[in-house]
Write a structure and sequence with these properties.
Blueprint (H helix, E strand, L loop, with lengths): L14 H40 L3 H15 L4 E7 L6 E6 L5 H14 L1 H6 L5 E4 L5 E9 L4 E10 L6 H92 L8 H31 L7 E5 H18 L3 E6 L4 E5 H17 L6 E8 L3 E8 L32 H11 L3 E7 L3 E9 L3 H6 L1
Parallel strand pairs: 7-9
Antiparallel strand pairs: 1-2, 1-5, 3-4, 4-5, 6-8, 9-10, 10-12, 11-12
The structure holds adenosine-5'-diphosphate.
């Protein structure tokens, strides 16, 4: 009996039986070790996947993959090719030995030429071909995911070290996982690039918006300054003009009414011409001054409850002579005995302007109707005429100062500033102004102002 024979006296084995049994046990142990190896490998493989999921460089994926592959197959040389996104060609991305890069390139050129590289691309397993030196073998395995080919693995093994089918299967699984890792790195890089681009674009846009806002602010500032300077200039100049103009008008009137040394009829006509001209100029200057004041926010208004009906009557009285001269009859169609919030003098100025326009631009035998409409909070005054009306293509300039809309040579006196000023005044009193007009038929100019409520007017 040998030393290793069992001591249990109940079992007696012959030498052959004992040998068969130990062989069997050794075999089982080997299978067990192989399975443990496989399990370890699978564990490492999943490590690669999770690790490379974190790793953001292809180089690190390749080098850790080489480490794992080294453990299952005795490669003399390993290399990875990646796909060039622009022309779908393959380039050497990683090589286990730096000085072997030239050898690998030459080798891959031969494999490409022989069609073996292309053949391996279409297989989902390792392809083993002869090395060009005929001494060794070359193992090719595509690196691909379900979506696309990510690269190619190339390994050189000695002919005496042909890998087992099991190890080749493991290699396939490892390379497939590596392909997914490479794909996720590429996606990650792409997202990062997009993100960077997006951030850059956002920053550029913000910068652009800031720059434009700055330039706009500058433009607004300088426009405001220019406007203030213009208003100041106008108000100064208007004062300068008004003083001598008043003197001219005063002395002209004195000469006209001089009973001691009365002017000849020709002189009286000239003096009348001077007086009317000066009057026109004074109106213009006053209107321009008012406009400049409103634009500069310097107009001072004395807002108080104004009885609209008596204001209308006051204004009619003031334009009556002109209406008679022009053969226009005036009626008030709808009276309202209520108050509006307004500056009495300024509102009178506005209404006189509207009434005199309705007379000036009327036809002989024409009519001027004043119609008041009220609602809960406002009173609207319509000034309706049966005059020449305003052609449609002139209507957008009605409230533009100095625009006379073709009446410059009509012989009808005017400055072209009255309506612009009236609208600005009404708006300064928190009201609104508008018009409708039909050429050849007449116009309706209106303004609307806040109504003073009954309780307020009682107190006034
Ligand atoms: P103007 O001093 O010339 O009357 P306005 O500013 O009051 O200046 O009016 C501007 C222009 O609008 C007038 O020159 C005239 O062409 C036109 N217009 C104003 N009111 C009427 C109206 N009731 N009917 C027709 N045209 C009018």
């Amino acid at each position: 009996m040998t030393q290793n024979q069992p001591t249990n006296t109940d079992i007696t084995l012959s030498a052959e039986e004992y040998k068969a049994l130990t062989d069997r046990i050794e075999n089982l142990e080997r299978i067990y070790r192989q399975d443990t190896d496989i399990l370890n490998m699978l564990l490492q493989m999943s490590n690669i996947y999770t690790e490379t999921g974190k790793i953001r460089s292809k180089k690190t994926v390749f080098s850790s993959l080489r480490n794992y592959l080294d453990q299952i197959i005795d490669f003399e040389l390993m290399a990875f090719f990646s796909v060039n996104e622009n022309d779908s060609s393959f380039y050497l991305a990683d090589c286990s030995q730096e000085n072997e890069e030239k050898h690998i390139s030459q080798l891959s050129d031969v494999l490409i030429e022989n069609g073996e590289f292309a053949w391996a691309l279409n297989q989902d397993r390792a392809v083993i071909v002869d090395h060009s030196d005929k001494q060794r073998l070359v193992l090719l395995h595509v690196l691909s995911t379900k979506n696309r080919v990510r690269g190619m693995f190339l390994g050189v093994v000695s002919k005496s070290n042909i890998p087992s089918t099991k190890n080749l299967n493991l290699l396939s699984v490892l390379l497939e996982h590596a392909a997914y890792s490479l794909e996720s790195i590429e996606l990650y890089t792409m997202i990062h690039q997009y993100n960077d681009e997006l951030e850059n674009n956002n920053a550029r846009l913000e910068h652009l918006v800031e720059e434009r806002t700055h330039r706009l602010r500058e433009a607004v500032d300088s426009a405001e300054q220019a406007n203030k300077a213009k208003s100041l200039f106008l108000s100064n100049m208007s004062h300068e003009f008004r003083t001598p103009l008043n003197a001219i008008m005063g002395f002209t009137q004195l000469l006209i009414t001089d009973s001691v040394d009365p002017p000849s009829p020709a002189q009286a006509e000239s003096l009348d011409f001077i007086f009317k001209g000066s009057q026109h100029l004074l109106t213009l200057i006053n209107q321009v001054l008012d406009l400049a004041k409103i634009e500069a926010g310097q107009i001072s208004l004395a807002l108080e409850p104004v009885a609209i009906n008596s204001l209308i009557e006051d204004c009619i009285a003031m334009v009556q002579i002109l209406a008679v001269e022009k053969d226009v009859s005036i009626t008030v169609s709808n009276k309202v005995f209520k108050f509006v919030h307004a500056d009495y003098v300024r509102l009178k100025q506005v209404l006189i302007n509207l009434l005199s326009n309705a007379i000036k631009y009327n036809k002989p035998n024409g009519t001027l109707t004043i119609d008041c409409v009220q609602d809960e909070s406002t009173i609207k005054v319509n000034v309706i005429d049966t005059g020449i009306g305003i052609p449609l293509d002139n209507q957008q300039n009605v409230f533009t100062s100095f625009s006379r809309l073709g009446q410059e040579n009509s012989g009808i006196e005017g400055t072209g500033v009255g309506l612009a000023l009236s609208k600005a005044l009404i708006e300064a009193m928190e009201g609104s102004m508008g018009f409708t007009s039909i050429a050849g038929e007449g116009s309706v100019f209106w303004f609307k102002l806040p109504k003073v409520q009954a309780t307020e007017s009682e107190h006034s």
